[in-house]
Amino acid sequence: MLFKTLCEYLEKLSLTSKRLEITSILAKLFKEASSCEIYETVFLSLGTLNPQYKAIKFNIADKMMVRILSKAYTIPERDILKKYKELGDLGKTAELFSESFVKQETEVLEVYQKLKRIAMEEGAGSQERKVHLMSMLLKSLDRIGAKYACKIILGTMRLGFSEITVIEALSWMEKDDKTLKKQIEEKYRIYPNIGFIAKEFKENGLFGIKDIHIETGVPILSARCQRVDTAKDIIKRHKTSAIEYKYDGTRVQAHLDRNKLSPAPLVKTFTRNLEETTNMFPDIVSAILDSVKAQSAILDCEAIGVDPKTGEFVPFQITIKRKRKHNVKKTAKEIPLKLIVFDILFYNRKSQIHLPFVERRKILESIIKESDKIIIAPEIVVDNTNKFMEVFNTAIEKGLEGIVAKDLTASYTVGSRGYAWIKFKREEKGTLEDTLEPVVLGYYRGAGQRAKFGIGAFLVGVLDEKEDNFKTIAKIGTGLTDEQWVRLKRRCDKIKLLEKPKNYIVPKELFCDIWCEPNILTSIRADDITISPIHTAGYALRFPRLVDFRDDISTKDATTVQEFKNLYKLWKK
Ligand code: ATP
């Protein structure tokens, strides 16, 4: 397929916000792509080159793109900048300056390879090489091609869909309906490489993806916790429940494979958002190698910093300092991590996710040699609320945020919130003390006192996973310090958008003065959740106030509409 053809589909996608229409356009695109180019087509349409766990960054910012355009079209940088300011988008700027006479015959695969080469350039002189390669590529593309090549590189595609919509479109491609979505999604959850799945599916339908299994080196979507109202509810659901402390560190999925040598055995760690973090955690890597007595294993864990002097766990804000690319060794010495392993998903070449938790736990106990660097999460099995509250209160006395209750008979709930795991936190005792994590969609300039900051309130929304969009839940104008207002405005301005993105479902009366990318995650507390005729989530927060910004997790972790509705029900009980 020609890159131009792909771009024409992308253009159509950019003109609609209707999910059914997006799915149908994608289904046609995937039908037209051959099985040799569907991997590339899928990722390019998502505005990337690879799955998250193998992400490669272009490291080309706006300023550099201005230079690239100037070189490609031999136009002074100041003229490019002027147009960019006017249009607010470098893709559109490239479209405008590119030569109308270029007859673009470049194939999708060729453009993909060239983009990949640009992204892979690193080391001395790499900036110059990137400028050169990208300007050459742009010269060979026609208007629409130039527009989308720039958008992909700058990460500004904003077509308003994610892997979930791609999965649905694959079903439509094959069956003209969404009946295969569930089966494809099941594979995606254990092997989140949507390009690879699309290729296998395109070649042989469901039969083609039948043999996609859990593999070391490829992260699995993590299980999440549900909430309930009372201890009684936990016992009612689980009958017998294994209670573990809820450690306030960072989730780590650790992979070990002593048969995959390159030349050392494979050890990799991933975050809950499928980002690889192996290089950040050399102490975890060595703990896994030394203490896990298995040929291969995938472990679900929480890593938490320890004060080297006292041996006590450090607060979350300190642990999170370990998530860095530079000064790794020094920080590892200052804040050593302890790995608390609480589940096993794969052991000696076999998936374990369908086993009941009690069986998975037995495997864990047989293969982990505990040390000061790695332990198995201690658990206490309870079958009545008195005993439960005893364990819970001990957790609180120890300064932990709560407990996670685990159903001994349940399999691992890959990539979703199930009642197999129920969290019960200090605050979650029927009050509205728990926080929500909505995303900032934009801000209002503000008047009076606040006018001096240029921001008076901001709009937050929750993620609708089913519809792949954001719905509003509150306009927030209080609870921020002056410094936080200034910081929030600065952050929003850095990622501001010229118009409301299609996937922000916002009533007219709440339209922001400045819209921004959904990249700022907040932690919000409120007095209540009420049914709302205005907010598009259907419910709204009463007296919402900012607790903090959540820079440690990605917007994929934002509170969802479904969770928000559950909270409403929970708190109304
Ligand atoms: P929260 O903000 O309450 O941590 P969340 O929405 O980020 O919630 P959940 O899936 O609801 O995530 O809560 C489980 C999180 O708690 C896991 O992602 C994990 O990082 C952490 N955790 C700490 N201790 C445990 C444990 N023993 N078992 C499972 N998860 C644990």
What does this structure look like?
One of its GO terms (biological process) is DNA recombination. Belongs to the ATP-dependent DNA ligase family. Its EC number is 6.5.1.1. InterPro entries: ATP-dep_DNA_ligase, DNA_ligase_ATP-dep, DNA_ligase_ATP-dep_C, DNA_ligase_ATP-dep_cent, DNA_ligase_ATP-dep_CS, DNA_ligase_ATP-dep_N, DNA_ligase_N_sf, NA-bd_OB-fold. GO terms for molecular function: ATP binding; DNA binding; DNA ligase (ATP) activity. With 573 residues, this protein is α+β, with helices and mostly antiparallel strands. Among the domains are: 224-424, 2-Layer Sandwich (D-amino Acid Aminotransferase, Chain A, domain 1); 432-571, Nucleic acid-binding proteins (OB fold (Dihydrolipoamide Acetyltransferase, E2P), Beta Barrel), CATH 2.40.50. 39% of the residues lie in helices and 21% in strands. It has 20 helices and 21 strands. Strands 3, 4, 5, 6, 7 and 8 form a 6-stranded mixed beta sheet that branches. The protein has a 6-stranded mixed beta sheet with strand order 15-17-12-13-14-16. A 5-stranded mixed beta sheet has the order 1-11-10-2-9. A hairpin with a 2-residue loop joins strand 6 (337-347) and strand 7. The termini are far apart. Residues 428-432 have low confidence and may be disordered.
Descriptive labels:
D-amino Acid Aminotransferase, Chain A, domain 1, six-stranded mixed β-sheet, 20 helices, OB fold (Dihydrolipoamide Acetyltransferase, E2P), alpha+beta, 573 residues, 39% helix, binds adenosine-5'-triphosphate, 21 strands
